[in-house]
TRAP transporter large permease protein
Amino acid sequence: MNLFVIGLAFLAMLGMMLVGMPIAVSMALVGIVGGIAAYGAPFMDSIAPVVWGVQNENLLTSVPLFVLLGELLLRSGIADRMYIALSAWLGRLPGGLLHTNIGSCALFAATSGSSVATAATVGTVALPSLHRRGYSMRASLGSLAAGGTLGILIPPSVNMIVYGSLTNNSIGKLFIAGIIPGLLLTGFFMLWIAGSSLASGNAMREPKVPLKARIRALVHLVPPAVVFGIVMGSLYFGIATAAESAALGVIAALGFVLHSGKLSWELMRNCFVSTARVSGMILLIVVAAFVLNLTVSLTGVAEAMTKWVSGLGLSATGLILALMLFYLVLGMFMDVLSMQVATIPITYPIATALGVDPIWFGIFIVLMCELGLITPPVGMNLFVVHGIRPDRGGIEDAIYGALPYALIMILFTLLLLAVPQLVTWLPGHM
C-alpha cells in the first residue's frame, strides 16, 4: 500500500509538471500535501526552518555566480571569437566545422555550467556560417544539440551543484570527477563526426589556414582557458570553496571583458537581470525539492523504497542498468532540473545502500540528464537549436541528427559502469 501511495504521489507530481504547472509549485504541493496527510497541520511548522536553512546555504551562492560567469563571456563576444579560433584549428578535420561545434561547446561549457546556454550560444554563432557553407542542417543541429549537453558534464556545472546540495556531497569532487568523462565524451563525439563523414564519401573540410594565422588565433582561447584554470585549479588545490572559486572566475571574466573594451553599464545590467532570472528559478526549485525531501524523510519513503529494491535482489550493476532505462524514459517528458530534484531523494539512498560510489552516481545522474536534453518530445536542446536555425526546416532534423549522439552517450555510460575509475580516480587524488 505504501508503494502504491508513493507511486501515486510521484505520478501526480509528473502530471502537474506536464500540464504546465511550475516545477517548484508541483514539488512543494506534493511535499506539503503529503506531509499534512501524514502529520497534520503541525507539519507546516517544520517547513520554515527548512526554507530558511536552504536560503542560508553558502554552497548555493555559487549558482548565481556561475550563471553570471557564463553571461559575461556570452554577452562580451568572447564566445564568438573562441569559435573563430577553434575553426582555424579543427576545420581541416573530416567533418570540418562540425568539429568546431563540439570543441566550442566543450570550451564554453568549461565556463558556463548550463547546457541550454552552451547550445544557444554556440548555435547562434555557428549555424549561419554552416548554412552558408552548405553543411547538412541535420548534422549541424545534431552536433550542436549534443555538444550543448557537455555544459552540465564539464565543470563547472550548475546541475552538479544541485546534486551536491541535495545529497550533501563535495561540489569540488563532483567538478573534478566530471573532467575526464567530459573530455572523453567530447572525443567520442568528434570521432563519430570524423568516421561518419569519411563513411559518407563527402567529408566537408574547411580551407587550410596558415600556421601563423592559427597561432595568432590562439589568443582568443586564452579567456575561457584562464577562467577554467582559475576555477578548477583553486578547487583542486584546496585554495577556495565552490562559491569562492566561482567568485574568482567572475573577477577574471570581468577583467577580460574590460580588456576587450565591451564593459558597459548596459552589458552589466543585461547580465545581472538574466542571472537573477535564471538563479531565482533554480533556487526556488531547490527550496521546493528540500520541502519534498522533508516529507520523504519524515514518512520513511526512501527507506521503504530501499527495502523494496533490496528485496528484489538487484546488484549495484543491475540497479544502474534499471535506472538507465528509467531515466531514458523519464527524460523524454521532463527537463533536467525536474528529473534531478524529483528523483535523487529516492534513487540516491537506494544506490548508496547497494554500494554505489556517491561521486560516481552524481556523474551518472548528470549523464542521464544530458541524455534527456536530446531525447524527444521534451529534449530542451533540440528546441533550442531548432529555434535558431537560419532556414525553416522541421524539428525532425534536430531529432534525427542527435540520435547517434544519444546512442554514444548510452554506450559511454556503460563504459563508465565497466571502468568506474574514469570517474573516481581524479577526485580520489584531491
User: Anything to note?
Assistant: The chain has a mean pLDDT of 87.
